[in-house]
Amino acid sequence: MATTFWIVILVLAVLLAIIAATWPGSPALSRQQRSRIRRVIGLPFTIVLVLVLAACGRATSEKTVRKLAGSPEALKARQEVESADRDIIAVWEAETPLTLGLVVLEDVCVGGSAPEWLFPTGSDRYKIKCTMSVAAYFVADPRRMADTIDGVLSAGDRTGPPIPFNHEFHNARAVVDYYRGKAGDPQGPGTGEPAHLFGGTTLTLSWDQVRSGNSGQLIEEPRPCSPHEPPVRRCLIEPASTSVADLRREYGMVFKITMPVKDYFTVWK
Asked: I need a surface site. Which of 6, 95, 131, 176 has the fewest CB within 10 A?
């Protein structure tokens, strides 16, 4: 986008110079000379301008997107990000009272757009950008909510960053006390049953509300997978035959950890 901006500035400067040199009021040039200057300079300049703007103004082709998405650099970055997220899930499964039931991964590479002259979003600044999102669904016994969440906090006390929630985390103790029946609504009177612990830039832990009856908020099903077309687009549901409803029906309730979407590979224009 910056390159295109300076090209436009240069174009305007040259146009102003041509206009100044061929202005009818200029005493130094006759009408015939001004006309000749316009023909000699204007036509080649127009052709070059069109070619330059065309070269700068293309959106990334599908072929280029696929080539860059399959490059060694992209494959390495993709593997590193996916491995890091799966390692976090493994820690949760090993250290907390939760039982892993489902993993959902979405990995998409998109090409950059043509120059955005109005309402820029920044998509014209790159040739390709790849992002990955990962969520894991766990199960637990709804009758042991207090012990389950307390167990998660104890795991966070031991492990640190892979589990960003511990007994010192904001209102975490109040959530445990709520489910033990020792305290009221953790977020204040009238706020109702809690449904998540929000870890900011790390991850979010959310769960089925089990004390709110039919009005309780439940963990939703993952959205349907987009077409699986590696390396440009991957969508994995593991195991593919399992749904959130299946997990809830078998185990009683569902927890979900959602990791931040990661921009793991970008090639700038």
From this structure: 6
